[in-house]
Amino acid sequence: MTASWSKAVEPTPVIEDFLKHTVNLVNGNPSYEPASYFRFITFLMSSIEFKEEISEHDRRIVFRKAISAFSSSDKRDSKMLIWHINSHAHSYLRAPKLAFNVFMPVSLGFTSKFSRKIFKVEGVNIRFKHMKQCNLTFGNVLDRAKASMGIEIPAGYNCMIISVQARTAAEAMGIAQDATDKIIGIINFVIGKTGIVVIGSPPVLPLNPVLVGPIQTVHDQSGAVAEDLFWYEPNPPTRKRIEDISSVEEDVATEVRTMLKALTKTEYCSQVLGFIARYNKALSSTSEDGCFIQLWSVLESVLGAQDGGSEIMIKRMSEFFTTKAAQTQHLKALRHLRNGNVHHGMTRSEWYPYIAQLREYVIIAIKFLIFAKPKFKSFQHFLDVLDVPPQPRDINKRLARLKYEMSIYKRALKDLPT
């Protein structure tokens, strides 16, 4: 594990600026001015290169440990900082991984049959249990959270248990939160109900039917709370409704597993799971215009429009419909709303119809990306298919043009000197 500075980076001025805001306490532990500390972490994230692959989460942990040791050392220059980073990277990344269970409350109702099912997302096992089955382990933490933070889990919530392998409780929580965004995103995607109703009768935000509770805990294999910590959401949603899937839970479980199985057969599984997690976060927003803007961003990513702009996104999305001209106008109207909000601060009293329409576009694009047959060779192949003209006449024109270009290329090869 060898870290080094990226080329064209001059770390000395940044290090000196950071050290100006570092105070060495009597006991030798450094404290930092928060803004300077986070600027320095951001600088290291973009300026340090590792020979081995290391995740963003692991890099942050290594940098925090290295900064603490570096700030207390006698010699404080760029070479010494690299030495501390390498030292902590070696000890941290070589440490054995332990088994943890992360408990997360969810607004989901189900029967005991559903609680026996196990879902696997990128190697992480996830189970759903009734809250009363988890209270022995979870209960004392909930009492502490209520007493210290004034936060409690709404009645009727059940529990999701995520089993992970990690070096620390914090790393376990990071892995579990990532897996939670994906599995809850898929469940919400499958359920297909967002609470969007008739204009004039706005629903209670967030729009997602299944939400994660405001308190999460990490437990070791004995059931004890790891490191005596719990995580909490300071501004949890006020909506208390429980999504009861008892009558359709077999169908939901089957569709969730079908999606996961289809994704594992693609070359872009992680990418699509990322889209679904962002789709879930958008519909978990407590802001109407925030939900709309986030959904628009998801659609841009699914259709690969970050570099080509909204025009190429509109063109690709309209290819899914026989009413291409009409859908193009719908998408341009949604773009006008998005640009007005982002660039001019324009807002509306009624966002829900536009959110519903944009959500349907996202669902159509993601489903096609997952279930299309034959499977796409890559995500770029998916975009290339959308860029192919739908009319045979247009395809023949493009083919004739390519043949003409190939003939010119072959003639040029013949004229090259031997």
Plain-language structure description:
This protein is of the alpha+beta class. It has 14 helices and twelve strands. The strands form four sheets. Strands 7-8-9-5-10-11 form a six-stranded antiparallel sheet, sandwiched between helices. A two-stranded antiparallel sheet has the order 1-4. The radius of gyration is 26 Å and the shape is globular.
Secondary-structure element order, as H and E? EHEEHEHHEEEEHEHEEEHHHHHHHH
Structural class call reads: alpha+beta
Could you give the count of β-strands? 12
Question: Low-confidence segments, ≥5 residues, pLDDT <50?
Answer: none
Radius of gyration: 26 Å
Averaged pLDDT, please?
87
Beta-strand content bin: 5-15%
What's the main sheet like?
Answer: 6 strands, antiparallel
What level of helicity do the residues show? 40-55%
First and last CA, distance: 49 Å
Strand order within the widest beta sheet: 7-8-9-5-10-11
Shape field: globular
Number of helices: 14
What attributes characterize this protein structure?
alpha+beta, six-stranded antiparallel β-sheet, 55% helix
Structure at a glance:
With 418 residues, the protein is an alpha+beta fold. The protein has helices spanning 11-20, 34-47, 56-72, 78-93, 131-149, 169-191, 249-264, 269-283, 288-302, 309-318, 324-344, 352-371, 379-387, 392-415, and strands at residues 3-5, 22-24, 30-32, 48-50, 98-106, 108-109, 118-121, 124-129, 158-166, 215-219, 225-232, 243-244. It contains 14 helices and 12 strands.
